[in-house]
Design a protein that fits this description.
By secondary structure, the protein is α+β, with helices and mostly antiparallel strands. Helix content is 31%, strand content 22%. It is built from 10 helices and 9 strands. Strand 1 and strand 2 form a beta hairpin.
């Protein structure tokens, strides 16, 4: 069986396998929290684009408006009356999550008071285990039995990633790199051991994406120690085609860029998928133990998250 990162290297077009360093992270990298003590600290910058956490309820609302624009107006999510009236994608988890933002300081928008403010062009929602424990658990628990994995690893700190979206003109390497630089900085700051969350494939008919689901099942399914199963009443079988019936290149090409990005980082895939009719997607679970991350990416962003530090 290919490891997740190797299967992407093997089947990605025009890619040359790069030598990988051993899968380890220097101990010093886990003690850099002092670099980001301030909640207002920038987590990275490339030119006019900056990544940092939301600093106010107003900025969270702007992130929710961005999510609405992407999920409901551009994609096929179904809005209820309240969501349509607010024109914001919001749920109770937003109140206690951290919201990672990419901000374009060259794109200024007028707020309701007529003041020019930099535009928020990308966002990720981050939920740490200690925060989730105080507020009823992780969002992902509605789809996957992740509590069993958390309970089996009491010495590890978990972080849930979710609600990822980027404004269409900014869906490029620079914006994605800044988002991941921000996540890596956050992981180091809070000494996170495991990242997890749902990744979505557009569409609600698993038979129409049988090759993608089967490809992930055969090539990236988590080892037993990290395997998490979809909840029983929502479980969708991913093993829909035999491995020898797959066209690996074609299946990989069809996967969403975010899923391929997770695989490059070294992510594992959970057992079973879940159809989310509200958002018009089929979700798979991503599990990323920090100690197993692709060392090439760790080295790229810097063991101390210094590559794009401002």
């Amino acid at each position: 069986m290919f490891s997740p990162r190797k299967l992407v290297q093997k089947f990605s077009p025009n890619s040359r396998p790069l030598p990988l360093a051993p899968r380890w992270i220097p101990a010093s990298a886990r003690s850099v929290a002092s670099s980001f003590q301030s909640a207002n600290a920038s987590l990275g910058r490339i030119g006019a684009l900056e990544v940092r956490l939301a600093r106010s309820a107003k900025e969270v609302k702007k992130a929710q408006r961005l999510r609405y624009q992407v999920f409901y107006e551009e994609m096929s999510a179904i809005a209820d009356a309240q969501t349509q009236a607010m024109r914001r994608d919001a749920d109770p988890f937003d109140a206690f999550c951290d919201h990672l933002l990419v901000i374009d300081h060259d794109s200024l928008k007028r707020n309701k008071l007529g003041r020019l403010k930099p535009e928020i062009v990308g966002t990720y929602r981050l939920l740490r285990q200690d925060v989730a424990d105080r507020h009823g658990g992780f969002y992902t628990s509605g789809e996957f039995n992740i509590q069993a994995l958390v309970d089996a690893n009491p010495d590890k700190r978990f972080l849930e990633l979710g609600r990822s979206c980027v404004l269409k003109p900014y869906r490029n390497k620079k914006t994605v790199e800044l988002l991941w630089h921000g996540i890596w900085s956050y992981v180091l700051q809070h000494k996170i051991d495991v990242m997890l969350g749902c990744a979505s494939i557009e569409g609600t008919n698993p038979d129409m994406m049988a090759d993608q689901l089967a490809f992930l099942h055969h090539n990236a399914r988590a080892p037993e120690a990290w395997r998490v199963r979809a909840v029983d009443d929502r479980y969708v079988e991913m093993n829909r085609l035999q491995a020898d019936a797959l066209n690996p290149k074609q299946a990989l090409r069809a996967l969403p860029p975010l899923v391929k990005g997770y695989l490059r980082l070294g992510a594992y895939i959970g057992d079973g998928a879940v159809v989310d009719h509200q958002f018009g997607t089929t979700d798979v679970l991503i599990i990323m133990p920090v100690s197993d991350l692709n060392a090439r990416y760790v080295n790229y962003y810097g063991a101390d998250a210094s590559r794009y530090s401002s």
